[in-house]
Design goal:
Order of helices and strands: EHEHEHEHEEHEHEHH
CATH class: Alpha Beta
Shape: globular
Structural class: alpha/beta
Number of domains: 1
Largest sheet: 8 strands, parallel
């Protein structure tokens, strides 16, 4: 699946919103501004917290045309991947650390005409996924430990983004594999993250602050654009 490496996309993480009323709230989001909606599925095992599952996502999809960006923070996604494929989101991301069969799962996602993402935690070396990259459309680099909302961006992530970008170039996958970054993204650091090589940015509080998502995302994109020019 081809990617758009010159376009910055913002994926607001709904974990920062009130999930009980989000079906109504989402109707106010402008699809021409908000590129994706990031959905963190947490199982209480791979990460300590619990969020929601395919039932909630299916209901949410009936309230918006904004493409869904499903991030599976779950153990053994092999057991439940079929339920998420049925939802036909834009992206499904699995964690490298959560399965012994990442290539099989990425192929299943791709074969369902869904963008296939592989995520790695801050403690996982970027080089660990070198052999997996040809089977992925996107790598999600966690810039915080997964499963805990509101953490501060880990500065070591900048070097990791640069290392991943260089690895993608080395494997002749430029334009084929996007880099997404999730955790602690703000208007103050987003330009540096983009300059390092990321093009899809997950934003929680920075997107949902004061409920002004459309304005906040627009400002994040303006700040991010400085990273392309830098």
């Amino acid at each position: 699946m081809s990617t758009d490496t010159d376009r910055i996309r913002i994926s607001p993480s709904i974990i920062a919103a009130d999930l009980t009323t989000f079906g109504s709230f989402v109707k106010a989001l402008d699809p021409s501004i908000v590129d994706l909606l990031h959905l963190d599925v947490m199982d209480g095992s791979f990460v300590p917290n619990l969020t929601f599952g395919p039932g909630y996502i299916k209901q949410l999809s009936s309230h918006t045309d904004i493409p869904l960006d499903v991030h599976l923070m779950i153990e053994n996604p092999d057991h439940s991947i079929a339920q998420y494929l049925e939802l036909s989101p834009r992206i499904i991301t699995i964690h490298y650390e959560s399965t012994r069969f990442p290539i099989r799962l990425l192929n299943l996602i791709r074969n369902s005409k869904i963008m296939a993402g592989i995520s790695i935690n801050p403690a996982t070396p970027v080089e660990s996924i070198a052999d997996i990259l040809p089977y992925a459309d996107m790598v999600l680099l966690m810039s915080v430990d997964p499963g805990f909302y509101g953490q501060k961006f880990l500065e070591t992530s900048i070097t990791r983004i640069k290392t991943l970008a260089a690895l993608i170039r080395k494997l002749n996958l430029s334009g084929k594999v996007d880099i997404q970054v999730d955790g602690g993204i703000t208007a103050e650091n987003i330009a540096e993250v983009v300059k390092a090589g990321a093009r899809i940015l997950v934003a929680g509080n920075a997107a949902f602050r004061d409920g002004a998502v459309n304005d906040n995302v627009s400002k994040l994109k303006e700040a991010a654009a400085k990273g392309l020019a830098g």
